[in-house]
Amino acid sequence: MLKYYISAVLLLFSSSVLAFGVREKSASEIYENINPAIVAVDSQLTDGISCGTGCIISESGTILTSAHVLEDGNDIIVTMSNGEDYKATLLKRFGENKDIALIKISVPYSLKTVKMGDSAKIKVGDKVLALGNPFGFKGTLTQGIISRIDYSKNRIQTDAAINPGSSGGPLLNSNGEIIGINQAIYNPDNNISNIGIGFATPVNIIKEYLLSIDSN
Hints:
The chain is α+β, with helices and mostly antiparallel strands. It folds into 2 domains: 78 residues, Trypsin-like serine proteases (Thrombin, subunit H, Beta Barrel); 95 residues, Beta Barrel (Thrombin, subunit H), CATH 2.40.10.10. It has 4 helices and 12 strands. A 6-stranded antiparallel barrel has the order 1-2-3-6-5-4. The protein has a 6-stranded antiparallel β-barrel with strand order 7-8-9-12-11-10. It is globular and about 40 Å long. The termini are far apart.
């Protein structure tokens, strides 16, 4: 009887240790870790400035962002989380309807980079975080869940607040990994602000694009 009791206690302890080992990171932990790898992207257009967000994907300064943020602008300025500004050049704009672009800055030091997750593992109801520069408020973190997954259109729907300026920023899982790139909000009444329905491109789609570049 005592042997059985000890075995049960050991099993319970082992389960507790395992659960502790996979503890979800807090939102503040995730923010502190990834914010240095998130930038503001401003593109000078003929009729104003288009503002968005970018994710640093290489230590040498390659940045992933939304193509519609850049539009036809030639003068692209990237602002780091520490406030430093750098002029960026366009490396690649992906094909029609993909709304993804790569830009590059030259910096005298190695940069913090984001970590890509696996969007094939996401489920409706999963907690997510969105990080970006809505309305120019740099380094803004919001929280929500995955509300819906539209497999036919390759879109992740979320109620985490996404607003103008958030495009190109990351949608993160509870481990701080990118599962999508924020792109748009539902806007049925021409209200440009968040109404609780935002969309992100799944990161696995983006990884396929990046691999296609490497193979060429």
